[in-house]
Write a structure and sequence with these properties.
By secondary structure, the chain is mainly alpha-helical. It contains six helices and two strands. β1 and β2 (about 65-70) form a beta hairpin.
Length: about 200
C-alpha cells in the first residue's frame, strides 16, 4: 500500500511539474511570437511563472530581443532537477547527467509541440464558429500560431475559403514529435512519462 501511495505521489508531482513546464514554454512562445503582453491571459502566465524565472533574469536576458533565455533556462533546470529527484526517490539510483539533460530537452520540446498542437485545434474551431471573436483567449491563440502559419501560407496559399496550412503544420508537429522527441527520450534512457509523453 505504501509503495502504491508513493508511486501515486511521484506521478502527481511529475504531472504538476509537467504542467508548470507547459506554462513556462507558453510564456516563452508568447514572447517569441510578440503576442500582446498586456492580454489578461499573458499577464496570468507571467504572474504564475515569474517567481521561478526571476532568479535567472539577473544574468540571462532576452536573446535577439525575442527569445527569453531566462525562461528557457528555468524550464530546463526545473525539469532536470525533477527527473533526478524522481528517479532517486523511485529507487533507480544516480541518474546519468547526460541522460537527465537530454530528457529535459525532450520535455521542453514536447511541451512546445503540445502548445502549438492545442493552439491550432482552438484556432480551427474558432475559425468555424467565431471567426471574428474578440475574446482575449482567441486573440492570443491567433497571435501565438501566426508565426508558424505564415511561412506555410506563403508556400501553400489558401484555396478560396480552404486554408491547408494547419494540416501541414499538424503533419510537421507529428513528425517532430515522433522522430525528434521520441529519439531524445530513448537516448535519455528514461520513461516517457517523465518528459510528458
Amino acid at each position: 500500500m505504501g509503495s502504491q501511495l508513493g508511486s501515486a505521489g511521484l506521478l502527481l508531482v511529475n504531472t504538476l511539474i509537467n504542467i508548470y513546464i507547459f506554462l513556462l514554454m507558453l510564456r516563452f512562445l508568447l514572447q517569441a511570437s510578440r503576442a500582446d503582453y498586456y492580454n489578461p491571459i499573458s499577464q496570468s502566465v507571467v504572474r504564475i511563472t515569474q517567481p521561478a524565472v526571476r532568479p535567472f533574469q539577473s544574468f540571462l536576458g532576452p536573446v535577439m530581443g525575442r527569445f527569453d533565455l531566462a525562461t528557457l533556462a528555468t524550464a530546463f533546470v526545473i525539469k532536470a532537477v525533477s527527473i533526478f529527484l524522481i528517479l532517486q526517490i523511485a529507487g533507480f539510483g544516480m541518474a546519468p547527467i547526460a541522460g537527465v539533460a537530454i530528457g529535459s530537452v525532450a520535455a521542453i520540446a514536447n511541451a512546445i509541440l503540445k502548445i502549438y498542437f492545442f493552439a491550432l485545434i482552438v484556432m480551427i474551431i474558432l475559425s468555424w464558429v467565431a471567426p471574428q471573436a474578440n475574446h482575449p483567449g482567441a486573440m492570443l491563440v491567433m497571435q501565438l500560431v501566426e508565426p508558424i502559419m505564415a511561412p506555410v501560407r506563403r508556400v501553400i496559399p489558401p484555396l478560396g475559403m480552404i486554408d491547408l496550412s494547419p494540416i501541414v503544420v499538424f503533419i510537421a508537429i507529428s513528425l517532430i514529435d515522433g522522430i525528434v522527441v521520441t529519439s531524445l527520450t530513448r537516448a535519455a534512457g528514461i520513461a516517457g512519462a517523465l518528459v510528458g509523453l
